[in-house]
Amino acid sequence: MKSMILIGCSMLSLCIVAAAQTPTLTALPNTVYVGADGKFETAPDTALIQFNIAAQADSAKAAYDQASKEAQTTREILRNNGIDPKTAEIGFYSVNPMYDWKNPKRKVIGYQVSTSVSLKLKDFTKIGPITQQLADADVSESQSLSYTLENIDEAKSKAVADAYRRAHASAQALASASGRNLGELSYASVDTAENIRIFAPVQRKAGMMAMEAAPPPATQEFTPQNVTVTAHVNAMFALK
Question: How far is CA 51 from the centre of its chain?
Fold first, then answer.
C-alpha cells in the first residue's frame, strides 16, 4: 500500500514523506494526511466483442455493395445464434479512396468501405461460436474480446470504500502512536481505474475450415479473467 503521511501540530513537529501520487496540499496544524490504495475484484458479467466490417473494390459503389453483403452475413450470424442484430452497435462508418503512392499524381486505384461493430453479450457460451463464425465467413479484418461489468460504478464505489478503510486505518495507527485521538474527516480526494484486458480470438479463413475438421472455439472451456477496479484515496483527518 502506497502512502503519504503528514502530521502537523503546535506541540509536535513531525513530517513523513513517502510515495507521491497525492495532490499538492498545505499541511494544517493538528491534522493527519494519509493516502492509500484499494481495489475490488470480481468475475465479469458482460463480454464485449468488437470487430470491423471492411471491403474494397475498384469503385465506391462496388465497395459499398460488398460491405453491405458482409453486413448482411453478420446479421445472419447473429440471428442464427439467437441475437437480435439491433443489439449490435456501429462505432463508425467510412468510405476512403485508395491511392497509388508510386504514381506522382497519386492516382486513385480503388475505394475501401469500413465500419466498426460492438456487441455486448451476457451469455458467454455464445462468444466462441460467434467469433468463429465471423472468422469463417471472412467478413471481419480483426476481432477483439474483452470482459467488463454492467454496473461498473458499483464496483468503483467498493474499491473506493476499500481504499478509504485502509487510509483510515493508517491515520488511526499514526494518531494512536503519537498519543492523539483521530477526529473527523476534513478533506478527501479519489481516483479510480478499471483494468480491462483485451483478447484477440484466433481467426481462420473459410477455405481452410472447409478442408479441416473444425477445432473448438479459441475461448472454449477457459474462465474469463476477473475485472479489477482500483482506487486511490487521499484523506485528511483532524487530530484531537
Answer: 16
Say whether 122 sits in a helix, a strand or coil.
Answer: coil
Q: Are 178 and 7 in contact (CB under 8 A)?
A: yes
**Can you state the percent helix, strand and coil of the chain, rounding each to 5?**
30, 40, 30
**Contact status, residue 14 vs residue 43, Cβ threshold 8 Å:** no
Kindly report the pTM of this predicted structure.
Answer: 0.67
Q: Please report, as a single letter, which amino acid is at residue 5.
A: I
Collapse the DSSP code of 123 into the 3-class scheme (helix H, G, I; strand E, B; otherwise coil) and give the result: coil
Q: What distance in Å separates the CA atoms of residue 5 and residue 105, rounded to the nearest whole number? A: 65
From CA 196, how far away is CA 224, in angstroms rounded? 11
Which domains does the chain possess?
5-43+151-195+229-239 (3.30.110.170), 46-148 (3.30.70.2970)
Q: How far apart are CA 190 and CA 232, in angstroms?
A: 6
What average pLDDT does this structure show over 129-139?
Answer: 88
